[in-house]
Design goal:
disordered N terminus, disordered C terminus, elongated, two-stranded antiparallel sheet, membrane, 4 strands, mainly alpha
């Protein structure tokens, strides 16, 4: 099931943008965490730095505040705020030290494959819905990504095929028993 979702994501991407992970000798160190590709060694260093900076900030603030604030609950509460600030600082430091491991590569996408994936998604429970029903922010984002027209064309194609089927079924029904009796 996960493999088909990855194929669906790849097929629905606009023609000008695709994301791939560089494959080389370091690929064995790469893992997927929360939908992003990370180097396991950098992840371990990031966790260690996060713990060190945030706990260090907490304990230092707790010690320094205890010298001036005599209410232990207030000291601990303010020290926790400083510890949270330490988490943010640790995040910024790790983001600067360890750059993302993905590469954005231009690639052409197969229109037939897109239609196949949209047909599969429409066949699932709930279907795709209608482009006209989308909230304005979602429609705007889909237009920016180049997906709005893809879904709109798919919707128009489905409607046209439904009309053709309805017309195809209506034509043979002209020879109803009532019309045979009148002949």
């Amino acid at each position: 099931m996960k493999h088909s979702l990855l194929d669906a994501d790849e097929a629905l991407r606009p023609a000008s943008v695709g994301m791939t992970t560089g494959v080389d000798a370091q690929a064995s160190h790469l893992v997927e965490v929360w939908g992003d590709t990370v180097d396991i060694r950098h992840l371990a260093w990031s966790v260690a730095l996060g713990i060190g900076i945030s706990l260090g900030a907490f304990f230092l603030a707790n010690y320094l505040l205890a010298l001036y604030v005599h209410d232990a609950a207030m000291t601990r509460a303010y020290a926790m705020l400083v510890g949270l600030a330490g988490c943010l600082i640790a995040g910024a430091v790790c983001a600067k030290l360890f750059r993302p491991k993905r590469e954005v590569v231009d690639q052409a996408s197969d229109t037939a494959r897109r239609e196949e994936v949209l047909d599969q998604l429409a066949a699932e429970a709930g279907g795709l819905g209608f482009v006209a029903d989308l909230p304005l922010p979602v429609a705007t984002e889909m237009k920016e990504l180049g997906l709005y027209d893809v879904f709109l064309k798919h919707e128009q194609r489905i409607e046209a095929s439904k009309r053709a089927l309805d017309e195809g079924f209506a034509a043979p029904n002209t020879n109803t028993p009532a019309s045979k009796e009148s002949s």
